[in-house]
Amino acid sequence: MEFFIISMLNGLSYGLLLFMLSSGLTLIFSMMGVLNFAHASFYMIGAYFGFTLTNIIGFWPALIIAPILVGGCGVIFERLTLRKVHKFGHVPELLVTFGLSYIVYELVQLIWGRTAVEFVPPELLKGSAFTLINHTSQGLSMVWGAAPAEMCKSIDDAIRIVCSPFPATRAFMMFVALLMLLSLWLLLTKTRIGLVIQAALTHPETVESLGHNVPRVFMMVFGAGTGLAGLAGVIGGSTFVTEPAMAATVGSVIFVVVVVGGMGSLSGAFLASLLIGVIQTFAIAFDYSFVSVAKDLGFQLSDALANNSVLKLTVSQVAPILPYLFLVLILIFRPKGLLGTREG
Amino acid sequence: MSYALELKDLRKNFGKTEIIRGANLAVNAGERVAIIGPNGAGKSTLFNLISGRFGPTSGEILLNGQRIDHKAPYEINRMGLSRSFQITNIFPKLSVFENLRCAVLWSLGYKYTFLKFLSGLKDANELAEKYMEMIRLDKKRDLLAMNLTYAEQRALEIGITIAGGSNVILLDEPTAGMSKSETSRFINLIKEVTVGKTLLTVEHDMGVVFGLADKIAVVVYGEVIAYDTPEAVRSNAKVQEAYLGSHVDEEQAGGH
Amino acid sequence: MKTYHFKPYNVGRWVIWSLFAIVLIFAPLIFTSNLSGTMLAQMGIAIIACLSYNILLGQGGMLSFGHAVYTGLGSFVAIHALNAITAGTSSIPVSLLPLIGGFAGIGFAVLLGYVTTKKSGTPFAMITLGVAELVFAMSLMFSEFFGGEAGISGNRVAGQTVWGITFGPQIQVYYLIAIYTFICVALMYAFTQTPLGRILNAVRDNPERVEFIGYNTQRVRYFAFIIAGFFAGISGGLGALNFEIVTSEVVGAGRSGGYLLFTFLGGATFFFGPIIGGILMVLAFVLLSELTKAWLLYLGLLFLFMVMYAPGGIASLIMMNLRVAAFGKLKQIWVSYLALFVTGFVALIGAGAMIEMVYHLQLNSALGDTLKFMGTTLNAKGVDSWFGSIFVMLTGLGLFEVVRRHFLIEWGDIQVEIEKEIKRRETA
Lengths: 344, 256, 428
Known about the structure:
The complex is a heterotrimer. Chain B is an alpha/beta fold. Chain B is 37% helix and 23% strand. In chain B, helix 6 links the parallel strand 7 (168-172) and strand 8. In chain B, helix 3 crosses helix 4, helix 4 (122-134) packs across helix 5 and helix 5 runs parallel beside helix 6. Chain C contains 16 helices and four strands. The two termini of chain C are 26 Å apart. Chain C is globular.
């Protein structure tokens, strides 16, 4: 039971991280029609900036400053490069961000090296947010923070106590993501600039003719989107690992999220992020394969079947391809995406 | 004898907004129909519904007696209906000749073949040449379409539309953005190239309308309020009201 | 009235194709070193791969991030077939193995392409990315087909030898590749002259309009995808023969990215652009990577500049200048070109020196602080080296900018003159 709860929370936290990234991507795509191939690269830059800044001024100031720096990089890139290719169409825009991802990858390795760096979370987040204790006779209970050792050890052999901690970093990730989601929603629906953005989402020329500086709005949106990615990077980098390959690992998943959720739909991206986050987290935890399940159920398998490498695959081994399988299935059965409203 | 094009209680809603609210029309083969109406009446939407760009919310569209509502554009085109666009919709990076040749390929049955060379397709090449002369762009044969003047591009637009040999042609504001002299030349061109075909054209220029059309359909607020010869439409009270305001308003205004 | 059409024998076409064949035949006789031998072989493979990619990108407007899936799977199927030949369970001659790769390419394109071509534009690109990740992830899971970490190896000296050709020596493999290259290039060029090829161009230019002239755009894309998959598979099969080993990186994102990068660099808007791209790809991977550790960075930057300033690639640059030359205006501008190149080169040296020094500090610091760069010794930690490089770069950049503006004015004038000349010839 506690396994389910902890895994669910882990999945949700990972899904919320994916949403932090895919929301920025969706915003940029909806507004500018640009698919930012380098979005995960900004995520990576955020993590590395966070790492360096943490070593200079500490984690909490870095948490604020690093995303701003990353957003600044995004603004510079938009101004210098993206704007120039805007007139050529969407394919060159995508290609330009593609080229940027190469460059960022090389630069990161150049400056910080090719191996992972030790981006440690601050003291406050090092422990567990809470711990679930499953006592055979007393049932499920929860303790804030880490559970003391004696609560997890059972003296009696008949009683089994299992302590499942939930890391504080993950809890913090969920907190920041939800906060960001709330602010985004408030910004888009309640403020004037949000109205302008919503209008420019579908009718940029009209908004421009109304006197709004649409290129400047685009630049801000790109900066905000990449800044969000940077924020996700600081948190993701300290929770997981900060290495040059981190952009590639999460990059393709967020594209899947955006297509599965429906191109241009924020709520779709939200749903898809959570779905994929939860499914992948659960899948990694399961060690069942077709063969093992059959054995558990008492079926007799022939030698050939039992040794078949496909059937021997455990769910956890298959976990990495689940998002992409999901993508293919969605495309066959619901090409618009889960909550998609417009064609890409 | 079925009508060339028939609309039966056609309706189209975008979300909650009703754009087409029960349009009825029956066009005989070979007729030239001008579709007029105030801005926002839904004329382009009607064209989009008929040509399959989007599907109706309810109602029927029949082409030569067969249902075509909810069919894909290419299916409708293969059944004999072609349309042009208000905003020029040609193949910019292909030459004038290539544009027209592409337009004739399907109708000649070449489908998706990659086993024949374009240069060897005598019928396609001759047909493309013929249409090129018809729309008077033979001197610009190898010019890329994006390098043509606006009027030339409009002519090419018409050319692509009729090259497929469809019997029912829809022209969406073909003379949009043209000067007076260009317009009159263009109208003669349209008359020439649509001989024997059923033509529906959305137009704002009344001179064009009265010179070109056998019948006029007046579309107001998503309904066809009148469908008759030009003289009859001119004197139709409902049409006058739609364009000029009602008698009552006039009298009130005049009376101060 | 009967019109007579006179089609003169297209001499130019025969000349070009014959030249191409001659280059293919005589290249290894001119460049005789071992290195050249392997590079030429790889170039042939890369040319077919990039041309097949351009069926999607340049001719169809379909940006794919996963083309390596089809070349790679073609390689895997071919190497398994090769092992079957070695084991005696198959009697297909080795020379036909690339065709097996080609058919594998068709098969996978039929299977995966159906889902992939359901969308177009940006969603299409993302789907290709997802499918590529799917296949790559699967390649790490199914070790029977993909060979796991070690990959699958084979021996191309297998089966029956015809006329004493065993395909053992590199030169024999080269000529096999050369034959396939010539035939594939010819076939792919022929494709551009067929109805499907032309409609594919129309789909690229205006997919909506194509529907209104009777064509199902999705079908068109699907068929083009399959044809591209065929040639991709052939390229993969040749690769399997050439290297005699296939590892999972052949379906990886790096390779797909490489096809995209170099096809675009060579020029997606002209048929021969990807040929240039394929050649550059091999030169970069084999030679440039040896020259400097920063080669990927340079490549990324070059790609970025190309997209911004020359989106038609090197091929378009060549064609633009050929046009200028055809009108006899090249002599007006060659001085500007020279100035551009010199100043640009100077700026590049400055920037390159700095990049190399940083790389040296990062990666080779154990070797000491000094490194050789273009004939001089730089001290990676020395202030004067840094100051010198920055100075050189900034000077170069400044001068480049001045020359560039002048060049643009001259270029603009020339274009206007050419337009006038064209109009004059038209009305004459």
